[in-house]
Amino acid sequence: MIECVTGSSTAVLDPPATTPPGVGWASGPLAEVQAASREISRQTALRYRAIAAFAATRPASADRAPGEPGTMSAERWAARADVLRPVSEWATQELVIALDVTSQRAEDELERALLLDQRLPLVLDALEAGVLHPGHLWCLLEHVAPIGDDALRTRIQAELLDWMGARHRVTTPAQLGDRVRRVVARHNARDAARHLTDAIRRRGVTARPDRCEGMSVVSALLTTPEAAALVAALGAYADALPADGRSRGQTMADCLLDLVLRPSETDLPPVQVVLSVIAPLGALLGGDQPCEIDGQVVPAETVRALLAALTGHPLVTTTAPAYDDATEDATTDAAATDEDAAGSIPDGAVLTEDEHFARWAEDLERRILAGEFDDRPAPCFPDEPLPDPGARDPGASPGPDSSPPPHPAGPPDGWWARADRAIEDAGDAVLAAQQALGRAHRLVATAARADAADETAWAHSAAGRVTAAPDALTALGAVTDEARQALADLLATTGGGGLADRPRLVLTDALTGALLGLTDLPELRRIGTCGRPACRRRPEHCDHDLTGRPGLRPPAESPGYRPGAALDRHVRARDRRCRFPGCRRRVPRTGELDHAVAWPAGPTSAANLTGYCTGHHRGKHQAPGWRHTLAPNGTLTVTTPSGLTASTEPPPY
């Protein structure tokens, strides 16, 4: 029995499952592995039972009824699993906070727990007993749980578990999945069409970031014929294009983009795509600081190329020249010559083992090329079998110490000659290998010096100085006037053409990354003068006292319920993503800015506004027993009906 102390109470856990594996118990550490896996299965079953019990305490009757203002959309309701409809939609958000998972993962866990508890009780018992492990569940949940006939579903569960119990051998999830499909097809073929209909309702397109920064994966859930037709059509488009060095997959991806984003040869109306691009000042000046496109991290060069393509204002950068092959070869030859000419270790130098070996190989090569080994006598051995050391020569005088001469004269192409040539060939091969290895060491050393020189040159270039700059002012001072002018041209670009809005400047706290102000070039010019008409026309000549000017600060509060344009931009730039704990959805471009203290009791100001996604905005107003508290510094604290608390801060820049 295991005791687990939680707070002031002690929870008693049941003893671990003792059902032996089908192949028996191992000995030693592997037996501990098997026992731990059995305990994981048992705890997984207990976890699902607890989630199902929690769901029973959150009935959907506490939510607004379908059709009432502010409820879940009809499309979202129709796409929700049948087993989830009796449960409050806000139970998922409570699981997010309790389990540190995404909303989709929490809903999946809730659905899985209810399916196991209500529709697959035999499977849940087998999981707790250790007959199944969590990897076995997917095929049972996908193919057995949807069966509507309770008696048939129970009979199929029993048949599958009996099959596993009678095997007494290894049963992988793939093997069980194949068996499940066969059994379900035999007993429940008439429901296949209904399952396909349900799957068709789940079709859609999603995007997720790839493991490589700057890349994303777009997935489309389609019917099998549609997916095959789509891939075949893209392949046909790719095959119709002349070869240009791209792979077939790369060409298909480019064709997909052209057909969707640039349908110039169709009658479809054009669409506008809005991307939020966040780039540090150093990245726009040629540095390597990471940037964001719609919340995904991308390299700085990607953003510079995108902005240049959209605005027609290439950003001027200055980088160190890269080493090409000719430069590397010349450097290598020169370095080898210098090393050969030196031939000695400089005073005070400490060489590694590899360096000692390289110098030994170079010295051996130099001695061979100088002919130091060319005066070796040519061997001559007889063309006869190897003499027996115990036999006497018939023509020699007998004696106790008599023995055949070690190398009697004979033709030069005999057995000893061939052996000597083999030894010479082996020596030549070893020498050649040593020479190649020595040259390889020299090449590696030269490449390391070239790489270090390239890195040093880059660090002293404008791009390197910008990357190392501790603040924006230092970065601006590290570049050329041409680069600063290119940046000014970008900031002066107004909406229209490739840009949906004027580029903005985000002023942040250097230590915390918190947003301090959001401005643009016209506003900087406006607040940088005294405000007189003559100075507004020629701001570079304004030398008046600016003490009374407002300076850079968050926008003032708006008089009505809707935030003004400047305030709306500021709050969205500050929050960027939904502020609910664990949520990563972007704040929609219109709406969903919520008053922490309801208007008009609370002002329409940056300190009283929070950005949410649509679902969590509804939950803030509708979920019973929840509390959302916004602190003056922007920290949002959420308290669940279970007493859990979680806080979030605006994401730093």
TrEMBL record:
Biased composition (Acidic residues): 325-341
Pfam families in alphabetical order: DUF222
Region: Disordered, residue numbers: 320-349, 375-416, 541-564, 620-653
DUF222 domain segment(s): 79-308
Feature: compositional bias, Polar residues: 632-653
CDD domains, A to Z: HNHc
Top-rank lineage group of the source organism: Bacteria
Pro residues composition-biased segments: 379-388, 401-411
Designated name of the protein: DUF222 domain-containing protein
